[in-house]
Each structure stands twice: as C-alpha cells, then as structure tokens.
C-alpha cells in the first residue's frame, strides 16, 4: 500500500516550445516520450515560467542584466504560440485497493491541457486557482506514469506602447492574472507574461475519504484567558459505499528541544454517503491562557500544530492534514481622532510600520529559501506589516508560513489596480476582468488557501481602485465578519448569546478579517479613493517631521530612493552601466541628475527634485566614480528612511495610525524604492529602517530639535535615562548631557528636551550626535541612535577630507559553524581614545527583546515557537546548542591609526576567499543577516555585531570591514 500524503514533483521536468514539437499529448505520454534534454527539449523550471526555463538554459540572455530584456521578443510581437510550451515529466506510483491518486496543480498561468498516460484533462483559465485531478483510473499498472502539460499564456497579453506606462496597454486586466507583467514605472515588461506552471505540482495519495480545506478559527473571552478553537472541514467519500469514519483533531505545542506538548486530542464518528461530500464541524476545543501569537515587536510568535486525520472502518488511516496555527485576534476600525485605520492585535493597538511588496522574483523563481530570507529581512527591519500589492500575486503559502514565523502581518489584495482597471493613459477598462465569475472563483479559492495563517490581517479589493460593483459586493458578502469579530465589545459576549446560525465562525468562508474595498478607502489615505498616497521622491529629512507633510491618518504608500551598492551595479550591468549620473546645474540653482540609459531602463530615481529638494548626494561633494557615488547614496539612503519612519512615528496616534513604504524590495534589478536589491544585498536604508522602527526608540525630531522617546509596546518604560553627546570632526566632545529618571507610558511618544548644541556659541558646521536610551539600574542599552548633522543651510562637504583621518579599530571575532552555516559574533571597538569611566554606556551592552532573534540559525527550520531563554543564557551558550563546532580561540584584527575621531559609516561584507577570480567577478556571499551594519563608533566606544550566512560548497568565507575612513576594505576574518 502506498503511503498517504503529498509528493512534490519539482525536478526532472523537460520543456519545449509547442510549435517545435510535432507530436500530440497522447503520443508524448504513450509511445513517443522525450528521452532527455535533446532539442527541442530542455531542462525545465517547474515550478516556474517559460521565460525562467529559457533563461535557465541560456536560450535567451538574463532579462535582468543591463539592456538584455530588449533583445528578448515580446509576446505582443511573437504571438501567444511562441510562449506556449510543453512541460513533461514522469513519476512512479502504484496504488492498492481503495487508494486514490490526485494530480494537483496549485496554480498555472494561464490555462493548460494535461495528458497522463495518453488521457487528456483540461485545466481551465485563471492564474490564481488550484486544480485537482483524480487520475486513479488512468495510472499505468506497472507504476511508471508519463505526464505532459501544454501551457497557454494569458488570453490578453497586451502590447507595450513605446512610452511604456503602468501596465502597458492595460489588456492584461481582462484576465485574472498578474498585472505588473506589462511593465510599470518600477519594472520592465516580462516578455512571456509569466506563462508557466508557476506554482507547486504534486501527486497526493488518499484512501477512500479525503480531507478538503479545513478552516480553523479561535475566539477569545475573559480578557484572552478563555479561548476556543473552532474547526470545520469538508470530507469527500470517493468510494461506492457509506464510509464510517473516525475523525480526529490533535493540537500540540512544540517546546524547546523538539518536545511536543499535546494540548487536545478529540475523536468523533462521522458517516459519509457513497460518492458524497459533507461538511463537518468539530465540537469547540477549550484552552485556558494559551500562548498567543503576536506581531513582530509585540511579543512571541507562538504557533500550535493542528493535525486532522480521518480513519475509515475496514481501511485504516485515509487522509491527514496539518497546519501551524496561531491564537490571536485582529481588529480594525477607523480611528475617530486621526481618521486613519487602526489595528489591534489581542486587544493591543499596533502602530503599523511596514512596506509594500510586489513579489519575490519577476520570473516567479520562487522558493522556500528565498521567501525565508525575504521575510526575515522585513522582520530584521523591525517592520510589522507587508502589503501584497494588487498588481502582483496572491502570495503563496510558503510566504505566509514565514510571515507566521517572523510576525509580519499581511495585507492581501485581489487583482485590481487603478491603472489597469479604470485609470491610466489611455483610460483603462473600469469593469475589471472579462470573466467576473472566474475572478470570484479565484478569490474564493485564494481565501481557502490562505485563511488559516495568523499573519493574514486583512483583505483588500484592489490597489488605488475598487473592484466593479458586482465583484465588490460579492467580496463584501463572502468576507463579512462573524459577530465575534465585529467589535471589541463582541468579545465579551458568551457563545450562548449568539444565534444558532452564527455560533461557529469556522463555517464562514473567513469571518475573522475585515475586507476593505480599496487601498485608499475606509481609513487609508483620505479614505475616499482620491489619489492621496505618496509622495515617491527624495525629501529633505526634516520634511517628514512637519505637520503638513502628510494630512491623513494612514499612508498606504510613501516612497523614495533605493540605490544599491556598487558591487550590485557591476554584477547586473555591463561597463557602460557603471557611469554615474551627470549633475546638470539649472538656472534655478537646483541640480538635475542625468542618468545613463541603462540606469534609466532600470528605473533609476534621482537624489534630487529640482525646484523642491537639492541633491542629497552632492551634500557630500561631487562623486568621482561609481564606488564613490554608491557610498554617498548609502549615506542618503540611511538618512532618508530613518527620517521617514521617525517623522511618522513622532506623531503616533496624534496624527497617524500607520504607514507603508513603497517599496521594500525589487522583483528584478531595479534602482528605486528598495531596502535590499534583487541579489539580496541590503542598502544602508535597510539599517536606517531597522534603527527607526525598533519597538522602543530614542530619536531627534529634525524639525524641532527635541529629543523624543517612542514606546510602541504595551508596558510602561520606567527608570530609564538618555545620554546625548556631540562629537566634532577633531574627535572631541563639545556637548554632553544626561536626562535621568525618565518614564515613558505605553504606546506613547514623549518629548524629553531640546538639543541646544546648534544654538550654542561657535557650533561646528558638521558634527555627530549620539543618543542612547538605557536602563539606569544596569546601563543596559535599550536604543542607540547616531546622527551626522550640519548647520541649517549647510552641507557635509567637510566629511570629504575627514575620509583621510586614520582612526584605529580593534575587531574581535568568534565563529560557530554547522555544516555550511556560519554564525559570527564580531566586537568592534574604536580605540582612538581610552574608555571614559564616567560614561558607562560605551560598551553598548544591549538588552535583548523577548521577541528578538537576530540569529537565523539558517540550517534549522524555524520551530513553532521560539522559546530561547534569551535573558538567562548567554549568546555563546545558546548558539552552542545548535552548532556542531566553534572555531578555536577568538580572532583579533586591528586597523592601525593614530588620530582620534569617529569611525564613521562602518559596514561589513562577506566574500568567498578563493584565490582565483575572474576580473570583476562578484565574490560576495549573499544573503547575509547582520544585527546592524552601516554603523559609527565614537572614540572609545565598542559595538557587538552578529552575522549569519551560508557558504556555497567548497568555499571559505572572508569577512571584510569597510568605512568612510577605511578604504578598499580590511579583512577581519
């Protein structure tokens, strides 16, 4: 008897253009299967797209490199047949009596014919729908099965106007598919429009009864002490007789050390008529004070494993289903004070600081590994929400799995955008896709696919547009809230107080999350759908703090620059793309950047806005080459995004309830709006965000020059102090002040006092400000914030000669290694001045947040609940539990220098240390997780930095330190 469960078919696929295959699907899966990757067949990317397969086989160049996308024929010019492809594979499987085999496609784009052992099945249209085919009766008796799939592109791939535009000619909006594929102001057109078997393919074996789409819901009473788990599932009896079943639900919690605690185990008897399906609801399960799931920055992401199994009399175990589930309640309403949408999780208000997300990769080369990096990067930036933009994907379960693990709330939109569905040039069709029934089928199937994830926070009809009235009304009806989830007051009602029709929320399609019709409606932007999100360009840092910067309570899109590091430009562009912009001075005195054609193609956004904002790179002097330009761009990136977040946070609850930055990443090698590039290297803006969005934060209001403390947590902060010190370019400290015995209420921003240094006598034209918020009891650092500042009307040109200042450093490192995974602890000290015993915060002993997890333990899959005893066990002890060996002794590297001063803008990078490289080869090891980067140290100050990464086989890593005063990089490990 074959083992029940899923087998993923993700290897061994072949592909060929349909016009080059002179065989039918029946022939391919009976008498004439392809024998291997010989023309016209090639190794296929499944899951993936046609274009991804062509790139993999070097049939076409990498469309994300330089201008190579222009050399690839667009579907508008080639016709749909050119991107209509066969995909072929085999699998072995024999069944015994009463077993069934389902062939599952979790998504294809856009329609397909499936041939299995000569038999044809049709996969109907729609990019966001699951297909499940019972192929039990057409399996080969010998167990060897031949599978061929002919995949057709979207019906309306559209044309790309010469001027480009948002969504090309908007024709793609007639289909239920991704809309970005015709190009946008941040991406070029995807030539095959993402045609392919782009999501998981699997075979699934069951007995006579199958479990389909269980729905899990928790309800809360008595201040979250009394909790009920509700579960409803569909059961399908595929046999010709009545199935007498024992249906079991088990709920367990994984404790440290892979020990599971079974909280509930319940079995019920169910009879299912022959050939029928029934919906069964378990009696509710009671929990007293379960561990709750919290968003990033508010607490732990506790997850329980829920397993449902069905045993059939006379057969045995027929099917099993499992899912990680988080007990949490999300509420949302329009705040009367700000007019912005306010979110509460488990009764606590949460100030939303997050980002807009398109998708991981424009060729849909999606993987668990990349999703894990993507989502951990967002958690590392201290974000608490990701918005899945309507022109992209209904994101995959793997994306949501890591959002569950790392605590990122998700705003999921359906497939409507303003530019393609009612706006744009020319004005697009406001009626949405041609097939409204198909849209709703895909929407309902997506809801079933994703609804059990605790990270999923809300559904939204579309981006800057609402769905057509019939679709909007249907979604509102399908996604109406169960009475438990309407208002906070409902949580106090007893179960018996509700009508019998609404007792069990798990019988709803969802019932637990709000539906908002569009991204600028009902508490977002001005709430009325007017174009009131943005802006999307460079700003003066102080502008973000001004009352008139943004009028409304919740900004769903606010964006700016995103230049990557020079190594990324060199890795993704030929030499002619390494030319930095020309700086053209206008009669108005402003400077206009003129970028090279490759940068323009990659959607570069300049660091100046003539007439409004002077160039923020030229503040540091005119760049001399690409390395210089990108380094100065990182300085601007850090300042820009730290100021954006601090400016919005400064008015938390008084004016704003949240904001989402447009955007966090690029699904290709774009040059705008990103905190890490497509190669997964972070910009300095990443660390500006990480600093500014920490749950408890000390900051300088750049408009008023008052020091503020932000407490976004639910507990009062007491007996704390702030150390403020000014440092000049000669390494002296002309200003030092301590604000002691401070108390900061929960969920408040408190203004502490004015920074008076700039108003003092003879202030320096360029100076550094270091703020530290610490516990008075043990000098533990809660928040550290370092600014480089100039006097009003000035610039940073004095930093240019400062690069020659030789400030000594001492770097101590220790490595913990398991297989290919390295976990490093670096200790960096500015040794240009002896430690001042009066300033006890110099060693930067950072306190550890309960939910903080800088180390990724990349070789270990995240467990259901992170229960590391972070306050009781040292870092090395905790790491040693997971790593098989540690390096012998500490390694010490010293960078010599004789001058006192601030070690400015230090940043690590990790490289392969192979001795033989091609000239210009990118030696970086990516991705790397840093606890901090692009940091600065005042004289005598030390900083612990944690680094984690995986190395390719046969590669020894080399860690290099760079900085404003440290040119060319210094090997420190």
From TrEMBL:
The keyword Nucleotidyltransferase does not apply. InterPro entries: Beta-gal/glucu_dom_sf, Beta-mannosidase-like_N2, EBDG/EBM, Galactose-bd-like_sf, GH, Glyco_hydro_2_AS, Glyco_hydro_2_cat, Ig-like_fold. Residues 38-198 form the Beta-mannosidase-like galactose-binding domain. Residues 210-328 form the Glycoside hydrolase family 2 immunoglobulin-like beta-sandwich domain. Residues 342-466 form the Glycoside hydrolase family 2 catalytic domain. PROSITE patterns: GLYCOSYL_HYDROL_F2_2 (PS00608). Keywords: Glycosidase, Hydrolase. GO terms for biological process: carbohydrate metabolic process. Belongs to the glycosyl hydrolase 2 family. PANTHER family: MANNOSYLGLYCOPROTEIN ENDO-BETA-MANNOSIDASE. It comes from Manihot esculenta. This is Lysosomal beta A mannosidase. Residues 887-965 form the Exo-beta-D-glucosaminidase Ig-fold domain. The keyword Iron does not apply. Coiled coil: none annotated. GO terms for molecular function: hydrolase activity, hydrolyzing O-glycosyl compounds.
């Amino acid at each position: 008897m074959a083992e029940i469960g899923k087998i993923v078919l993700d290897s061994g696929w072949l592909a060929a253009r349909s016009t080059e295959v002179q065989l039918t699907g029946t022939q391919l899966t009976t008498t004439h299967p392809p024998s291997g990757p010989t023309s016209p067949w090639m190794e296929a990317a499944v899951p993936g797209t046609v274009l991804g397969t062509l790139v993999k086989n070097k049939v076409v160049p990498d469309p994300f490199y330089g201008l190579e996308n222009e050399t690839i024929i667009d579907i508008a010019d080639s016709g749909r047949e050119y991107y209509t492809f066969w995909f072929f594979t085999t699998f072995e499987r024999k069944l015994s009596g009463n077993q069934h085999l389902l062939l599952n496609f979790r998504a294809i784009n856009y329609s397909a014919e499936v041939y299995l052992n000569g038999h044809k099945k049709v996969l109907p249209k729609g990019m966001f729908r699951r297909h499940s085919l019972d192929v039990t009766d057409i399996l080969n008796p010998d167990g060897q099965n031949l599978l061929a799939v002919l995949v057709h592109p979207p019906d309306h791939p559209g044309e790309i106007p010469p001027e480009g535009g948002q969504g090309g000619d908007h024709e793609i909006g007639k289909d239920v598919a991704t809309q970005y594929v015709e190009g946008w102001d941040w991406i070029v057109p995807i030539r095959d429009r993402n045609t392919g078997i782009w999501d998981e393919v699997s075979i699934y074996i069951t007995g006579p009864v199958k479990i389909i789409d269980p729905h899990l819901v928790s309800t809360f009473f008595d201040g979250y002490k009394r909790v009920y788990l509700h579960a409803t599932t569909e059961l399908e009896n595929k046999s010709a007789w009545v199935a007498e079943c024992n249906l079991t639900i088990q709920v367990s919690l994984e404790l440290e050390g892979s020990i599971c605690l079974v909280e509930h185990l319940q079995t019920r008897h169910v009879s299912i008529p022959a050939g029928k399906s029934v919906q069964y609801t378990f009696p509710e399960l009671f929990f007293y004070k379960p561990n709750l799931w919290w968003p990033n920055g508010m607490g732990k992401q506790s997850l329980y494993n829920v397993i449902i199994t069905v045993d059939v009399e006379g057969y045995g175990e027929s099917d099993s289903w499992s899912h990680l589930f988080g007990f949490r309640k999300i509420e949302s309403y329009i705040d009367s004070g700000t007019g912005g949408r306010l979110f509460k999780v488990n009764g606590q208000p949460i100030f939303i600081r997050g980002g807009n997300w398109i998708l991981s990769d424009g060729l849909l080369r999606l993987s668990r590994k990349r999703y894990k990096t993507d989502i951990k990067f967002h958690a590392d930036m201290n974000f608490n929400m990701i918005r899945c933009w309507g022109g992209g994907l209904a994101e995959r379960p793997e994306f949501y799995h890591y959002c569950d693990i790392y605590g990122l709330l998700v705003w999921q939109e359906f497939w409507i955008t303003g530019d393609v569905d009612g706006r744009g040039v020319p004005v697009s069709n406001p009626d949405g896709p041609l097939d409204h029934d198909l849209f709703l089928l895909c929407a309902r199937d997506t809801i079933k696919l994703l609804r059990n994830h605790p990270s999923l926070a809300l559904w939204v009809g579309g981006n800057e547009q609402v769905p057509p009235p019939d679709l909007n009304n249907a979604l509102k009806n399908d996604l109406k809230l169960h009475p438990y989830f309407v208002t906070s007051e409902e949580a106090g009602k007893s179960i018996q107080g509700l009508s019998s029709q609404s007792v069990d929320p798990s019988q709803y399609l969802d019932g637990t999350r709000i539906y908002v019709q569009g991204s600028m409606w009902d508490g977002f932007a001005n709430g009325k759908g007017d174009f009131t999100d943005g802006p999307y360009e460079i700003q003066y840092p102080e502008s973000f703090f001004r009352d008139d910067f943004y009028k409304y309570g919740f900004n769903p899109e606010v964006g700016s620059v995103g230049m990557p590091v020079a190594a990324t430009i060199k890795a993704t562009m030929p030499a002619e793309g390494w030319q930095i912009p020309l700086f053209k001075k206008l009669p108005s005195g402003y400077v206009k950047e003129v970028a090279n054609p490759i940068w323009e193609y990659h959607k570069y956004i300049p660091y100046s806005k003539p007439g409004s904002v002077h160039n923020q790179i030229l503040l540091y002097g005119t760049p001399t080459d690409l390395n210089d330009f990108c380094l100065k761009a990182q300085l601007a990136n850090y300042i820009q995004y730290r100021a954006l977040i601090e400016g919005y946070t400064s008015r938390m609850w008084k004016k704003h309830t949240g904001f989402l930055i447009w955007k966090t990443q690029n699904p290709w090698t774009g040059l705008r709006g990103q905190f890490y590039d497509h190669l997964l290297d972070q910009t300095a803006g990443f660390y500006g965000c990480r600093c500014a969005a920490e749950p408890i934060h000390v900051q300088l209001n750049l408009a008023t020059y008052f020091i503020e403390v932000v407490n976004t947590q639910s507990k009062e902060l007491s007996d704390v102090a702030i150390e403020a010190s000014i440092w000049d370019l000669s390494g002296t400290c002309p200003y030092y002040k301590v604000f002691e015995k401070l108390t900061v209420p929960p969920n408040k921003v408190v203004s502490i006092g004015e920074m008076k240094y700039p108003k003092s006598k003879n202030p320096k034209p360029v100076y550094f400000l270091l703020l530290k918020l610490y516990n008075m009891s043990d000098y533990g650092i809660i928040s550290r914030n370092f600014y480089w500042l100039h006097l009003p009307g000035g610039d940073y040109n004095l930093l240019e000669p400062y690069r020659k200042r030789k400030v000594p450093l001492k770097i101590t490192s220790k490595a913990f290694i398991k297989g290919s995974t390295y976990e490093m602890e670096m200790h960096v000290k500015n040794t240009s001045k002896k430690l001042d015993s009066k300033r006890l915060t110099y060693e930067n002993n950072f306190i550890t947040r309960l939910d903080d997890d800088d180390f990724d333990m990349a070789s270990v899959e995240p467990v259901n609940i992170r229960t590391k005893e972070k306050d009781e066990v040292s870092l090395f002890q905790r790491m040693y539990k997971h790593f098989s060996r540690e390096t012998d002794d500490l390694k010490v590297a010293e960078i010599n220098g004789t001058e006192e001063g601030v070690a400015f803008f230090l940043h690590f990078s990790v490289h392969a240390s192979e001795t033989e490289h091609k000239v210009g080869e990118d030696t970086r090891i990516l991705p790397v997780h840093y606890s901090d980067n692009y940091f600065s140290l005042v004289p005598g100050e030390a900083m612990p930095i944690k680094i984690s990464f995986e190395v390719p086989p046969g590669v020894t890593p080399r860690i290099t330190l760079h900085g404003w005063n440290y040119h060319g990089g210094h090997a420190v490990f």
